[in-house]
Specification:
The structure is a single chain. The chain is mainly alpha-helical. It is built from 5 helices and 3 strands. It has a 3-stranded antiparallel sheet. Helix 1 packs parallel to helix 4 and helix 2 crosses helix 4.
Length: 143
């Protein structure tokens, strides 16, 4: 299936898993990908901020290895934590969608951090109904 591009095939739909919306077309699909990336980064940043903490305050949540969510996700997908945002914004819409899915899977696979409902994958879903002409129909109608 090398070179398979579901976006070029009308038998596939893009669905935003967060709300079940179809996000198709040259405008809706890239916008939906960018919005989910923004939401994912917002969540990651909210748990990863390394800010000065006043006496008695809590620092950022860390996993058992002492990593923030940003660091854990970056390690899981093989990029530097400081490059995570640029990594997610680089490439075409479908490439960015794939990177978003990697991030979602990394957060879902974490033993320390939980993924909220505020973002999710955007997936290619095959059409449930497919019609194929049989040999008999083709011959009967000279198709």
């Amino acid at each position: 299936m090398d070179g398979f591009r579901p976006e070029d095939n009308p038998d596939w739909y893009t669905i935003r898993q967060r709300d079940g919306e179809f996000v198709m077309g040259e405008e809706d699909f890239p916008e939906a990908v960018d919005e989910e990336i923004r939401r994912a980064l917002s969540h990651i940043d909210s748990l990863s901020a390394r800010v000065a903490i006043a006496d008695g305050g809590e620092g950022p949540k860390l996993n058992d290895d002492g990593q923030t969510l940003r660091e854990e996700v970056a390690e899981e997908i093989g990029v530097d934590a400081d490059e995570l945002e640029s990594y997610l914004h680089d490439g075409g819409a479908n490439e960015r969608r794939g990177k978003l899915d990697e991030v979602v899977e990394a957060v879902e696979g974490s033993e320390t951090f939980e993924k909220p409902d505020s973002y999710d994958k955007i997936e290619w879903i095959p059409s449930a109904v497919r019609h194929h002409l049989t040999e008999g129909v083709i011959e009967s109608y000279d198709l």
